[in-house]
């Protein structure tokens, strides 16, 4: 008995030192990449119990390998605006890990995009994709191009230039990009057109999030938002709660937010606030989703316009205070680090019961701690927002089979995948002694599958 205790203490120390040394090497090797450091820390903090139980992963250097992308490309994207002026943006693709399948992950167009943002997103994508149970590796790409205020022709010229370089690195069995912030059906369409023109043929499986008429999947548009609500619903059920009659605050008013609002409303919730990068609206009567869709999907307007249609609502400039609106459930669906420690404390003080991360890394590490310490149900991004990539993988399957499934078929598969992700996260948390902690559970469940695949494939 004494010997076992001694060995396990030794294992514990070795595992802690191993995790620390890998984290320090990430900081040293990737200076000034704070978002990437944060994403690595969030995962690594959960993995010590795995190395205590399975020292084999340490021996084969799984962690050192997993934090280093297999490949990152960075390239020039020159384009000409409607007035004939030349602009140069920077494009990226991080092909992080292909142990489970071809690289898969979205493309983000936003002025804040840099190597750190793309690497944090690509790194998280490895574990998220693993959790879906689909055969897909992790990657992410993007550009510091700002689509806001650009004409359709400017968007087309930019995306064509972007794809003229990106096409060299992607393919239906190699790397399959999709949308993300600033990249929706319009941008995917232009990228697909240019890829097809350069490559010849119609390789439908090279991009997901395509239009339904040329190989897209029904339910892909809704998948991330719906999936997030399905996941939160599982968490609520466990505590005997539900969306019915709950008040919900959802940040953002883009793809993920709109369909999170739609599903939450279908489940009987009252969604009272949403936002864009300029500010937020608060409608105590419940958000009118038709108006939000009209403003955001059709007219590409600012969310402030909402109050012209619904005078009982208020608009507040700036985003942070959206979290001061009392609610039962909060779904951050806009961007990274949008809930800091102070906002988390405000949400807790106002009685929030559950958080579901629709966006990637929307809560800071300090905010997550506040939620966990106060027993708020917390659905971490890589589990709660995995519905989008899961349906992307279903789109790839349909493309390969030359089939189209109905909305109901894909929605049922999405629902079941989200339930499985919830259950496997709960089980992993329990198995490693962190019962009820879905951050640890999702990280461990996502990691183990990738680690096993990496070990089977040798030191590569
Ligand atoms: P969209 O571009 O469709 O919408 C983004 C929304 O967030 C917009 O309302 C935008 O406002 C707002 N926003 C963007 N940046 C900021 C900021 N710095 N501060 C406040 N608000 C901001 O993107 P998606 O809905 O696709 O993506 C949202 C999040 O979900 C991202 O974190 C993304 O990585 C994640 N995600 C998306 C998936 C998908 O399938 N689309 C899958 C998994 C995760 P504005 O219009 O003013 O810029």
UniProtKB/TrEMBL annotation:
Species of provenance: Paenibacillus plantiphilus
Assembly: Homohexamer.
Keywords associated with the record: Oxidoreductase
Protein name according to UniProt: Glutamate dehydrogenase
PANTHER family documented for this protein: NADP-SPECIFIC GLUTAMATE DEHYDROGENASE 1-RELATED
Record bears the keyword NADP: no
Signal peptide, first to last residue: none
InterPro entries registered for this protein in UniProt: Aminoacid_DH-like_N_sf, Glu/Leu/Phe/Val/Trp_DH, Glu/Leu/Phe/Val/Trp_DH_C, Glu/Leu/Phe/Val/Trp_DH_dimer, Glu_DH, Glu_Leu_Phe_Val_DH, NAD(P)-bd_dom_sf, NAD_bind_Glu_DH
Domain (Glutamate/phenylalanine/leucine/valine/L-tryptophan dehydrogenase C-terminal) ranges: 217-458
Organism domain of life: Bacteria
Gene Ontology molecular-function annotations: glutamate dehydrogenase (NADP+) activity
Family label: Belongs to the Glu/Leu/Phe/Val dehydrogenases family.
Any matching Pfam family: ELFV_dehydrog_N
């Amino acid at each position: 008995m004494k010997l076992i205790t001694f060995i396990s203490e030794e294992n514990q120390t070795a595992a802690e030192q191993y995790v620390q040394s890998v984290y320090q090497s990430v900081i040293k090797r990737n200076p000034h990449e704070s978002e990437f450091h944060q994403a690595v820390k969030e995962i690594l903090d959960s993995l010590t119990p795995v190395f205590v139980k399975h020292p084999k992963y340490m021996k084969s250097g799984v962690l050192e390998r997993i934090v280093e992308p297999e490949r990152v490309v960075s390239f020039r994207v020159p384009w000409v605006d409607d007035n004939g002026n030349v602009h140069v943006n920077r494009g990226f693709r991080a092909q992080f890990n292909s142990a489970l399948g071809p690289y898969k992950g979205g493309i983000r167009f936003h002025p804040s995009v840099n190597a750190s943002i793309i690497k944090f997103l690509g790194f998280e994508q490895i574990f998220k994709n693993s959790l879906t149970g689909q055969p897909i590796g992790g990657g992410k790409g993007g550009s510091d191009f700002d689509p806001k205020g650009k004409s359709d022709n400017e968007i087309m010229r930019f995306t064509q230039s972007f794809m003229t370089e990106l096409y060299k690195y992607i393919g239906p069995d190699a790397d399959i990009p999709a949308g993300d912030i600033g990249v929706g059906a319009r941008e995917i369409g232009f990228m697909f057109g240019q890829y097809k023109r350069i490559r010849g043929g119609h390789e439908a499986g090279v991009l997901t999030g395509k239009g339904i008429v040329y190989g897209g999947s029904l339910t892909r548009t809704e998948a991330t938002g719906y999936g997030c609500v399905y996941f939160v619903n599982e968490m609520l059920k466990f505590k005997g709660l539900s969306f019915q009659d709950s008040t919900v605050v959802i940040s953002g008013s883009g793809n993920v937010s709109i369909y999170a609002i739609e599903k939450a409303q279908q489940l009987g919730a009252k969604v009272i606030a949403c936002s864009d990068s300029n500010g937020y609206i608060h409608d105590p009567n419940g958000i009118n989703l038709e108006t939000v869709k009209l403003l955001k999907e059709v007219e590409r307007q600012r969310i402030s316009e909402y109050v012209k249609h619904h005078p009982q609502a208020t608009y507040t400039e700036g985003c942070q205070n959206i979290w001061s609106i009392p609610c039962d459930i909060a779904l951050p669906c806009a961007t990274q680090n949008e809930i800091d420690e102070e906002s988390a404390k405000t949400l807790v003080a106002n009685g929030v019961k559950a958080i579901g991360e629709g966006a990637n890394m929307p809560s800071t590490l300090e905010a997550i701690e506040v939620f966990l310490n106060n027993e708020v149900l917390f659905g971490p991004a890589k589990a709660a927002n995995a519905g989008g990539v899961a349906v992307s993988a279903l789109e790839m399957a349909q493309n390969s089979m030359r089939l189209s499934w109905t909305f109901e078929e894909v929605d049922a598969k999405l629902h079941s995948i989200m339930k499985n992700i919830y259950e496997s996260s709960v089980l992993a948390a329990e198995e490693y002694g962190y019962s009820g902690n879905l951050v640890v559970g999702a990280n461990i469940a996502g990691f183990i599958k990738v680690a096993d695949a990496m070990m089977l494939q040798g030191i590569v």
